[in-house]
Design goal:
The structure holds two protein chains of two kinds.
Chain A (H helix, E strand, L loop, with lengths): L7 H17 L9 H7 L1 H11 L4 H10 L4 H12 L17 E6 L25 H4 L20 H7 L28 H10 L2 H12 L8 E16 L4 E20 L7 E10 L3 H14 L15 H7 L2 H9 L6 H24 L8
Antiparallel strand pairs in A: 1-2, 2-3, 3-4
Helix pairs in contact in A: 2-4, 3-4, 3-5, 4-5, 8-10, 9-10
Chain B lengths: L12 H16 L5 E2 L13 H10 L5 E6 L6 H13 L3 E2 L8 E5 L12 E5 L13 H9 L4 H14 L10 E3 L3 E3 L9 H4 L5 E6 L4 E5 L5 E3 L26 E5 L6 E5 L2 H9 L9 H6 L1
Parallel strand pairs in B: 2-3, 2-4, 4-5, 5-8
Antiparallel strand pairs in B: 1-9, 6-7, 6-10, 8-9, 11-12
Helix pairs in contact in B: 1-2
Classes of the chains: A alpha+beta, B alpha/beta.
Amino acid sequence: MYVAVKGGEAAIANAHRLLADRRRGDRNVPALRIEQIIEQLGLAVDRAMGEGSLYDRELAALALIQARGDLIEAIFLVRAYRTTLPRFGYSRPIDTGEMKIERRISATYKDLPGGQLLGPTFDYTHRLLDPSIAEGGAVDTPVARDSEPERAPRVTDLLGHEGLTEDDVNEPQDEIGDLTREPMEFPLSRDRRLQALARGDEGFLLALGYSTQRGYGRSHPFVGEIRIGEVEVELDIPEFGFAVNLGRIRVTECQMVNKFKGNAKVPPQFTRGYGLVFGQAERKAMAMSLCDRSLRARELGEDVNHPAQDEEFVISHSDNVQSTGFVEHLKLPHYVDFQGELGLLREMRAEHEAEAGDDAYPEAAE
Amino acid sequence: MNVAAYNFAYLDEQTKRMIRRAILKAIAVPGYQVPFASREMPMPYGWGTGGVQITASIIGPEDVLKVIDQGADDTTNAVSIRAFFAKVANVAVTTHTAEASIIQTRHRIPERTLTEGQVLVYQVPIPEPLRYLEPRETETRKMHALEEYGLMHVKLYEDIAKHGRIATTYAYPVKVEGRYVMDPSPTPKFDNPKMHMSEALQLFGAGREKRIYAVPPYTEVVSLDFEDHPFEIQHFEEPCALCGATGVYLDEVILDDHGGHMFVCSDTDNCEDRREHGHRGTLAGHALEAAE
């Protein structure tokens, strides 16, 4: 019986060997290649990059294979690697107004400068399983536009001209926070909160965003705009005295336009919720912008009554690597603590029986 | 694809410096929870990332490391963490409490009295002793600042009112050097007295919650209680079935499905040491051999 607490080392090694075998599966089936994952499971790669907060398709794809397709495990792998990387500096803010757009839709205007571009979307597909994919059928080449795209200013900038929406930045900011390099202390500044949301679990934020739509902290959202495409990343290099272009990344941005606020000084204007995520991750960007708006309740003088408005609640529980670690740690041995509880319970039961035997009620406070 | 090589003890030197600064602050203010920029580690949150970060920041090539979980060196997570440091820091590891310069632990303090120069690193899940009374960090930090611990005493009193005793058997709150109420991590209250005036430095790391706190050597650590309900540790009616030890913390091992059980030392090193010195419990011999 004592075997149960012995031999941990060999057991671990064997378990990992079995894991490697199960990951590989039937050896007669060709092994997955990184390019296949990048090319054909691109949205899973995007999610691993986004919540892993590391823009590297190859590493995210590797993580997905290594994690046997378990997304949270893949995100964890990406994060554990990211944390070891040195920081060279902070890029300039990306300019999503200059995005090379692949998809851009607005639910608030029928037409607008730059137009509506559906892009590669699941929207309006009929969700019917397609056997031709299983057969590896040929796929048509997409239709490309023949003219140079018109400039597509962000919807919030269009509304901004009339002063109808609040400005981009309404918090004075000297330095950009980084939750992965500083202790987290509440209340968070909005940049840190947005960072936490961008890294946050899609499912958790989706459910919270949904809860605001169902009345738990309603914020009357409209999708001002969702845009997906590539933006340039630039880094200021002090020695050069100018910004250097590091390359392009694909991002999804969602601008939610929400019901107004105003007071004696500021005329009524739309408020905003913001979402920005690596890759193509529309659901996540929308959920993020709903949560961002809802977490601004205090700043905007609204009552904080609902989970999605509660910053400590939302941000402390939105990180799936943290959540999964702590939930799954319950698998670790706890027999020392359990023994303490067992002992106490036995004592209390013995006392209870003795008292029942005496046919007496326990005295208060005894 | 290039995946970088890792620094000695995994963390980069800047991160170690940041953590050491937090440790120094924690030592300067015993029992106070110092926020630190906890890193993502290659093991899950809740599995000892706080303790691992502290150990990684203080360990040097000359150190001898012992890792225990539930008092035992051979529980799976202890094996895994020990293997991690053997790999990334290439340090000597031991199971002998007396030989170790750093002992990382989860849920126990070794039975053998720790001595000057040793460091005990605790893995802490929830560093905030007031957390289950007040979920908000913004509130609990205020309560600590104002030394407002009435709520904790009310909780202990309610235990007595309901159960006739303080029904907390592990993570039993202590007051450090007469100032901060501190969570000793989920060690059984049996171990609380070992913290008091310990010669060893005690460091506590909570990775997920991003807090470090400390009890420097020779510091008063007092378990909270009431005059008419003084703090008591657990007592076991049987000695260890393997080494016959009394006055140590025991684990219950179930032997069959008819309620048969035995009690064995939770501290495996202490138990093995006693047996090497000729101490025998009622089930010593066959049960142990079966294991090897």
